[in-house]
Amino acid sequence: MSFTVAIVGRPNVGKSTLFNRLVGKKLALVDDTPGVTRDRRPGDAKLVDLRFTIIDTAGLEEAGPETLEGRMRAQTEAAIDEADLSLFVVDAKFGLTPVDKTLGEMLRRRGKPVVLVANKSEAKGSDGGFYDAYTLGLGEPVPISAEHGQGMIDLRNAIVEAIGEDVAFPEPEDVAETDVVLHPTDEDGEDDEVEPEYDDTKPLRVAIVGRPNAGKSTLINRFLGEDRLLTGPEAGITRDSISVEWDWRGRTIKMFDTAGMRRKARVQEKLEKLSVADTLRAIRFAETVVIVFDATIPFEKQDIQIVDLCLREGRAAVLAFNKWDLVEDQQAVLADLREKTERLLPQARGIRAVPISGQTGYGLEKLMQNIIDTDMVWNKRISTSKLNRWLDSVTTQHPPPAVSGRRLKLKYMTQVKARPPAFMISCTRPDALPESYVRYLTNGLRADFQMPGVPIRIHFKAGENPFEGRKRKR
């Protein structure tokens, strides 16, 4: 059977460390600072022979519902209600606190199975805290060390006993999809005349990125139709890259909410550096990236750098001008945004841009359609015969320049991969080809094969000389 487990406890008891231990990789950010985790993060856990869904949650604190801590508490309570079982983690090294006792009462009132976990039990002097955990009235605590992986067998047995039936099942043959996987790359090889059709049934991975407080989490909540992610007026609420799944017109969309990216010079704290690194990882493993702009203050220097980063990583990019409901003269602002997009982002000529409002839901259907259209271009393949006819045409219209008195010759062209589209051109003296002519070819490919807004890679290779290495006959 499949079941869901929520990890709960006060801040800094090691919940995210235990989460990373159970999923087998460092997905959740871990730091000595209390309150690192704010949103609830799901993952696929493996514990000996058990397979289940694990949810990492924020540390529970007593706070009013209007505060950030209060909203974090509401997210954790939602995870408890969603789960079949809760792992209540206490710090055996530090001992119990009044907050632990309050949380124990809350879990007992909910009437769901609870496994009491005494973390950091390997530390010297942890026996007192371990025995104090009995006073919570939640059964025998399980001593573990999430950092060092100690006590996992005992934790497995306690989970099976709490669920009330044998939940073990055999090792699956196929590797389960994890939260972060490398996207498939296309094999190099000969390109036939076949141009494969776009598979609109395959799940699509989308990362939402942008500056802090641009409205990324609000946008995803509007897509889902629920307050799945923590939001508020404070900048920088999101720290981890959280993935959520939903269906759009029958297609599975896996969307990643990410931490806001500030200018590098302003990122000083270790925790923020970890958050930015997590965002960069989400960009690299996504297929399409939505860069969210604040429509009231668009095209800040950091916005342009984020777009450039996504394109250099080879991702398909879409711009979303959020908070459109706050713009007064929308027609004038829209014309200004179009002009700035073309002028400030020449490396992404034709990039799709959509005005939206995550608060009201305006423009979200159009945004999703633009995401799908951009992904189609990103996956596009062009037959070799079409490419070579095109190459003959553009080189006839504008021949390559002569360098050092010798004219360059472009002989043959083929597409070596997609995602993003990459091409190889066989030519004489590839190192001597001017950058201006490479831009001419790139812009020609965009215009003639309808590939707006995606990165295009062109590689040049010197043709083999069949007489190279032979001795000259006298």
Protein described:
- The longest helix is centred in the middle third of the chain and has 16 residues, at 270-285.
- The protein has 474 residues and is an alpha/beta fold.
- Strand 2 (41-47) and strand 3 form a beta hairpin.
- The strands form 4 sheets. Strands 2-3-1-4-5-6 form a 6-stranded mixed β-sheet, sandwiched between helices. A 6-stranded mixed β-sheet has the order 8-9-7-10-11-12, with helices on both faces.
- The chain is built from 12 helices and 17 strands.
- The chain starts with a strand and ends in a 12-residue tail after the last strand.
Supply Rg.
27 Å
Helical segment count: 12
Q: Total strand count, please?
A: 17
How far apart lie the N and C ends?
82 Å
Give a quick rundown of the structure:
This protein has helices at 15-23, 68-82, 98-110, 127-132, 152-163, 216-224, 270-285, 301-312, 330-344, 364-378, 384-397, 435-448, and strands at residues 4-8, 41-47, 50-56, 85-91, 114-119, 142-143, 204-210, 242-248, 251-257, 288-294, 316-322, 352-355, 402-403, 406-407, 410-417, 422-427, 457-462. By secondary structure, the chain is an alpha/beta fold.
Please give the structural blueprint.
Layout: E1 4-8, H1 15-23, E2 41-47, E3 50-56, H2 68-82, E4 85-91, H3 98-110, E5 114-119, H4 127-132, E6 142-143, H5 152-163, E7 204-210, H6 216-224, E8 242-248, E9 251-257, H7 270-285, E10 288-294, H8 301-312, E11 316-322, H9 330-344, E12 352-355, H10 364-378, H11 384-397, E13 402-403, E14 406-407, E15 410-417, E16 422-427, H12 435-448, E17 457-462
Parallel strand pairs: 1-3, 1-4, 4-5, 5-6, 7-9, 7-10, 10-11, 11-12, 16-17
Antiparallel strand pairs: 2-3, 8-9, 13-14, 15-16
